[in-house]
Amino acid sequence: MAASLLIANATDQPASRLWERTERACLALVEAELDLAFSLLRLANTEFSRGNRAHATDLISKAVATHHRTLEYLGNVPAGLEEQKYELSKGARRLFDAIRAEWRTSQSS
Question: In this predicted model, what pLDDT tens digit does every residue of 46-87 receive, in sequence order?
Fold first, then answer.
């Protein structure tokens, strides 16, 4: 019986490492998406200043969609990655605040 447990544990280790690497890669992707959303907002600001309201609104919508995807993913982050989840949550909050500020600016223009 003990031998079968050792074999089971040995075969589970590579799978668990693969799972952890996959989760970390997903976290890195979410971080990259947040960076992209901030870039979209900067571009939206430029488009508003040039008078291209339709394109700017479209860019803000894309940033909002990224924010929603981030929140969905963060709701499913597994235990053991709380620190990374917390950091991405702060980034999502900053993105939300930036979206709200950009939207307010666009409405006052």
Answer: 999 999 999 999 999 999 999 999 999 888 887 788 888 899
What is the residue type of 2?
A
If you search the block for the tokens 């992707």, which residue do you land on? Answer: 29
Are 18 and 67 a contacting pair, CB within 8 Å? no
Residue holding tokens 């089971």?
8
b/e sequence 2-41, b meaning 16+ C-beta within 10 Å: eeeeeeeeeeeeeeeeeeeeebeeebeebeebbeebbebb
pTM of the predicted model as reported, rounded to 2 decimal places: 0.78
CA atoms within 13 A on the CB side of 22: 7
Angstrom distance (rounded) from CA 8 to CA 3: 9
How far are the Cα atoms of 4, 60, 67, 82, 101 from residue 25, in angstroms, in the given order? 32, 26, 18, 15, 30
Question: How does pLDDT run across 31-49, given as a tens digit for each residue?
Answer: 999 999 999 999 999 999 9
